[in-house]
Structures are given as C-alpha cells and as structure tokens.
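Technical note accompanying the year-one report. For the benefit of new consortium partners, we illustrate the data format agreed upon in the data management plan: each record pairs a sequence with a structure-token string. No post-processing was applied to the example shown here.
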Amino acid sequence: MREPRMYDLVVDTERARTGRVMGRVGGYLQLRPPGGGREWDADPARVRPADEDERLRAGIAERRLPRAPGRRPA
C-alpha cells in the first residue's frame, strides 16, 4: 500500500473509524471524521484505504455539513 496523502479517506483499523488525512505529526497521521469533528492520531501501519462503501458513507456525511452563506455545493 502506498503512503496516505493529505485528504485521502482512510480507515484506522485500530479504532474502526474512517477519517481524512489532515496531516502528520511525530510519525502519526492526524485523521478527521468525514462529517467533521475532532482529529485523532493514527499509526500509519494500522491504516488502510477506505473501500467503496466507506467512501460512499463518508460522502453522505460530508454533504450533510452546514454550508457557509453563498458557498456552492461541491
């Protein structure tokens, strides 16, 4: 598996959580839930790419986010 890049959607297999890669600090990936929320640190060795079903669920969660006035949907 290739090294996850910024904004990749991945699954933290240690916590069974899906998140977007927001950065890297001290050898850990910083992940944020697709619908928003608090970031957490994940061991890159325990992270895998999200599968199709997980990507679809994440897309739904992200589309439910409130939009700033005047902001167009993605």
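Partners are asked to follow this layout when depositing records. The longest helix spans residues 52-63.
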